[in-house]
Sequence to fold (306 residues):
Amino acid sequence: MAQDAGLSELQAIVMSAIVYAGSAQFSAIAILAQGGGAGAAIAAAALMNSRFLPMGVALAPSLGGGPLRRALQGQGVVDASWALAARPDGSFDRMLLFGSSAAQYVAWVSGTTIGALWGGALGDPQDLGLDALFPAFFVALLLGEARSGRARGVAALGALIALVLVPLAPAGVPVLVASFAALVGLTRGARAAVLERQEAEGEPR
Amino acid sequence: MSTGATVIAGCALVTFAIKAAGPVALGGRELPIWFTSVVVLLAPALLAALVATQALADGDRLAIGADTAGVAAGGLAAWRTGSIVACVLLAPAVTAALRAL
Fold:
């Protein structure tokens, strides 16, 4: 796919190493392969990555250090590790986040290298069903998250918003806008539930 | 600079800025209860949206395919057994099997 867009094997590997955001890389390359310009490709990647904004906001209180250190720690966010490290009280397990991101980074860069150098011999990843792996992982995490009726309602609302926007908005935007479903948390009942849980855990946070 | 190099550099910068924004703007301080209460609901909202856009859509159109069935099978396994491993092994296996038919 990267070759269709005019990228060399080395460029594809470098891109994975320094951008490290799979879906953004794919959308940028898809635009190039369709004959789009560099600006359009970068804009598509930015939109695809916009979902990291709310994830970063959620993570922020769990990070320490100065602005530069927090900016660097923020780079550790990818979908799977962010979701894995989320605790029910709204804080994050930082070590779990960085550990799982580091493992995925190694897998991602080596996967790109294998694909770029020997991709032709491996066949289509679709035949192996690999495109079902991440959504299935997210379903499993969602089952753990959606214990309260409120969380289940927000999940349903988020999915609905995303599906309605898929045909209308550029890739990445549906997931970003779906994060607004979390504004249900502004209701009095939702705030009371958080207070109650924090008091039960004895953590003033 | 070639188009490829420009796109790679641009994507790297944009991704860095987006991932840094939240932690830099909001890090290291106590946040009010209403904020925490929204944050705890971000995970279900974003996860559900990621599942919906990956399993029920193909690019910019809604599409149900072998991957939808695979994800459903994996989800069922996770729900019944509580095992994430069973879920992520079963989903690609079912998807690949359906595609091989």
User: Anything to note?
Assistant: Chain B has four helices and two strands.
